Amino acid sequence: MSLKPARPALAKAARAALEAMRPALTGGQAQPQAPAREPECPNPECTDGWDLRRDRECEQCRSRKQLVRLRDELLGAGVEPRYLEVEWEHLQMDDNLERIRKGCAVIERVIREGRNLALHGIPGAGKTQAATLMVKAAIRKGFAARIYAMSALVTQARAAWTAREEEERLFERNLPEHMARFRLLVLDGVGDFEAAGKADAQHNTLEFRLLYAVLNARQGAGLRTVITTNLTQKRFAEHFGPQVVSRLKPFSALNMVARDWRERETPLDW
Predict the structure, then answer these.
(1) DSSP summary character for residue 83
(2) Is the dihedral of CA 110, 208, 161, 25 positive or negative?
(3) CATH number of 10-26+51-259
(4) What is the pLDDT of residue 158?
(5) Which residues of the chain have pLDDT under 50?
(6) Measured between alpha carbons, how far is 205 from 79 in angstroms, rounded to an integer?
(7) I need a labelling partner for 64 at 20 to 30 A (CA). Which of 31, 58, 203, 246 fits?
(8) Residues in Cβ contact with 151 at an 8 Å cutoff, skipping those fewer than 6 apart
(9) pTM of the full structure
(10) How far apart are CA 255 and CA 195, in angstroms?
């Protein structure tokens, strides 16, 4: 059965929903912040970014601008502010994190020739941190990369579903094309509502449809995708079925067994 052409108002609404995802679909926590006031350059010979003694651009100002630009790119890629300063040396490394770190060191090859990746583990095991560091590595090498909270995508689709059926179809049809803009895509928290026992039938249906559509499009385009999930490998396969799992191939699966980093020791306690 052929679908009727979408009305302009619905098409506009669907595009608006996709545009709204760009800055804030990371669980509602990562809102771009107003740029901080630039500190004074510590170089005494610098005037408005120019080194008068060397008669060239001030190296310290240029480095600071590069850091600010990287920070803006990371926020625009969905990286939460709490992860902006986190690097590998800040983590308690284990074999899985070391494996991911080595992949980040050759991120260009991973993006061009590598496999997709599924990170399984309990909440707080470092899945999102590791995936965020992959996004940071890709951006530093000039690749378009993005991290999205799966729950936020489902919320957007659910709002469209509640509004009108035609608008829902537009959202689902346009989403894979939007996601194909990124050479590296992280879908964070896939199946987490199911893992927590809080998913209803509508949530599960929408999550399956969105995940299948995005993975299918990216598999066809040869684009790298990383998913993080609180579900075990067995439960993930049972919940989403062979259709989704096959669209993730070829992929590697890692079980993140590190203890909850939120329970780390601190020098000050109550």
Answers:
(1) G
(2) negative
(3) 3.40.50.300
(4) 80
(5) 1-11, 13, 22-37
(6) 27
(7) 31
(8) 27, 189, 192, 193
(9) 0.75
(10) 15
